[in-house]
C-alpha cells in the first residue's frame, strides 16, 4: 500500500469549509453549568477556561469529565491531558455499546487514542479500564459529557485479541477460510442496526462474493446523508463504489497514514485524500464519526459524517444524470 500512496502538500479549501461549523460557545457553557449542578465543579470550571482553545475547534465532541476527587488527587491537568479527555465525535450511549473491546477512539491530542475496554459482562461502558456514567451528564446531540472517577492514563495499553494493524497496513494478501457470505452478512447486520441501511443494501446487492484478497474498507455515511445527496440510492451503485477501498484498514492503520495519502477506491479515477485539520483525521474533508463500526478478518467499516465527494464536487437534485445505474 505504501508504494501506491501519493503525498500532497496542501489542505484543500473544502476541508476547511466542511469543518468550519464549530460548537457554539453557548453549548459549552451550558454543559459547564450542568456539570456544576452535577457535582463536577473542577471540570466545569476547567471546561469554561479551555472552551475557546479546544472545543470550539470541532463541530462535535465528547468530553470525559473526571470527578472532583480526581482533580484533588492529581492536581490541575496539563493541556495535553485535557485534550486526551476530549473526542472530536458525538459518542452516544448506543454508539458506544456497539464498539467492541480494543476499538480505538480518537482524541483531540494528536496521535493519541482512547481504548474501549468494555467486556460482554459489563453493563456500563468502560474506556481505558475506567467506567463511564451510564448516561451522559450533558447531551445536546453535538456535545456530550460523561463522568469518570479518575483521569485517563496517557500511557495506558491493553493486551487484546484484536487483529494486529501491522499485518494489514500494507494490505498484503493473506489466506482466509471465511466464506464471502459470512464476511458480508455480519457487516450488513451491523450497518442495518446502526442507521446505515443504504450502505448495507449496497454491500448485499453489489459486493457480496467480491472480496479482495487483502480485504476491503467501507466508509459508511448515514442514511440521511445518502438520501439528501442522491435520492434513490438503489439506482446509483457508482456512488457507493467511491466509499469502498480495496484493502482492509482498521482505525489504527488509518491514523498512521501520512497527510496527503491517497486511498484508491472501487470507482475508477476516484481516490480518498487523507488529511488532518487541527489534529482531526478527515477523508476528502469528511471526519470519521464512528471508527471501527464493524470489522472482521476481511472487512472494516468506519462511519463517516457525510458522503465522500471529490474536491469542488456537489450532488445536485438531478444527481441521477451523474450516474449510470447499470455500470457496476
UniProtKB/TrEMBL annotation:
Keywords on this record?
Answer: Signal
What family does the Swiss-Prot or TrEMBL record give for this protein? Belongs to the fasciclin-like AGP family.
The entry's protein name is: FAS1 domain-containing protein
Species, as recorded: Vigna unguiculata (Cowpea)
Q: Which InterPro entries does the UniProt record give?
A: FAS1_dom_sf, FAS1_domain, Fasciclin-like_AGP
- What Pfam families would the database entry show? Fasciclin
* Range of residues in the leader sequence: 1-17
Which segments constitute the FAS1 domain?
16-152, 171-308
Instruction: Supply the source organism's classification.
Output: Eukaryota, Viridiplantae, Streptophyta, Embryophyta, Tracheophyta
